UniProtKB/TrEMBL annotation:
GO molecular function terms noted in the UniProt entry: ATP binding; ATP hydrolysis activity
InterPro entries, per database record: AAA+_ATPase, ABC_transporter-like_ATP-bd, ABC_transporter-like_CS, ABC_transporter_ATP-bind, P-loop_NTPase
The protein's name: NitT/TauT family transport system ATP-binding protein
Organism: Nocardioides soli
Top-level taxonomy: Bacteria, Bacillati, Actinomycetota, Actinomycetes, Propionibacteriales
Domain ABC transporter: 7-236
CDD domains: ABC_NrtD_SsuB_transporters (cd03293)
C-alpha cells in the first residue's frame, strides 16, 4: 500500500450469482482512503455502497480487482457498525462494549477500564448494567459504536448507522459522533449514508456513486474547516453545498 493510505481499491467489482441471473452490483471502482480521513459514501439505493463497505471489512470478497486494507496481526485493522445495532440481547451494556476486547483476550480489569471509558464518551455510564431490551434505539446504537471503538481499530466502518432513528435523534447522534471523532485523534472512518446533510457535516470527502452497478461519479472535498460545530447546518454555505451534492446525485436517484 502507498504510504499514508488506510484503504486502496483498484478496479474492484462485485457480481452476485443466482440461479436466475447474475447481478453486477458494483464497479469497477478505484479509490484511496487516507489515514485519519472521514470519507462518506452516498448514492442511490442498491448501488453497492454497503457492498463496498463489507468488502473493506473483509465480509465480502471482490469478484475482480484488488482491494487492500491496513492489517494488524494479520487481519484488517477495522471494526464495523451496522444499521441494525447488532448487539447481543443477553449481554449487559458493559459486556457488549467489552466484547471485542474479550475476543482479543485483553485482561479483564483492563478490558473493563477501556469499556467504561468508551461508555462515558458515548453517554452510557449510567446504563452499564442494563440490557438492550430496556434501551431506546439511540442508546443501542451508542452501544454498537462504543463496542466498535473499544479495541482501538484504526479504521471504523459505518453502514447507515443512524438510518433507523427518527430525525431528531439522528441529528443528536450525528453531533455526538462528530464530537467524539474530532476529540479522538481522528481515526479513519468510512461511512455509508443516504443523508447528504450527514455526509456534509461529518465528512472530509464525499464519494458520490452512480446507479447500479455502482461507480464513482464524483470525489468531492468538503469545503468546511475543522473542528466543526453542529450549527454549521444552518449556514448558507452548508445549504448551498448540500444542494450541489443533490445536483450530482439527482438523476441517478431518479433512474434507480
Amino acid at each position: 500500500m502507498r504510504s499514508g493510505n488506510a484503504v486502496e481499491a483498484r478496479a474492484v467489482e462485485r457480481v452476485f450469482h443466482s440461479r436466475k441471473r447474475d447481478i453486477h452490483a458494483l464497479g469497477p471502482v478505484d479509490l484511496d482512503v487516507r489515514d485519519g480521513e472521514f470519507v462518506c459514501v452516498v448514492g442511490p439505493s442498491g448501488c453497492g455502497k454497503s457492498t463496498l463497505l463489507r468488502m473493506i471489512a473483509g465480509l465480502v470478497t471482490p469478484s475482480a480487482g484488488e482491494l487492500r486494507v491496513r492489517v494488524k496481526d494479520g487481519r484488517p485493522d477495522a471494526a464495523m457498525v451496522f444499521q441494525d445495532y447488532s448487539i447481543f440481547p443477553w449481554k449487559t451494556v458493559l459486556a457488549n462494549i467489552r466484547l471485542g476486547l474479550d475476543l482479543a483476550k485483553v485482561e479483564r480489569r483492563e478490558a473493563d477500564r477501556l469499556a467504561r471509558s468508551w461508555a462515558a464518551k458515548t453517554g452510557l455510564s449510567d446504563f452499564l448494567d442494563a440490557y438492550p431490551a430496556s434501551l431506546s434505539g439511540g442508546m443501542r446504537q451508542r452501544v454498537a459504536i462504543a463496542r466498535a471503538l473499544a479495541p482501538n481499530p484504526q479504521i471504523l466502518l459505518m453502514d447507515e448507522p443512524f438510518a433507523a432513528l427518527d430525525a431528531q435523534l439522528r441529528q443528536v447522534l450525528q453531533d455526538e459522533l462528530l464530537e467524539v471523532w474530532q476529540a479522538d485523534g481522528r481515526r479513519t472512518v468510512v461511512l455509508v449514508t443516504h443523508s447528504l446533510e450527514e455526509a456534509a457535516l461529518l465528512g472530509d470527502r464525499i464519494l458520490v456513486m452512480s446507479n447500479r452497478p455502482g461507480r464513482l461519479l464524483a470525489d468531492q472535498e468538503v469545503p468546511f474547516e475543522r473542528p466543526r460545530r453542529p450549527e454549521l447546518r444552518a449556514t448558507p454555505e452548508f445549504v448551498a453545498f448540500r444542494e450541489q451534492l443533490w445536483h450530482l446525485l439527482r438523476d441517478e436517484v431518479r433512474s434507480a
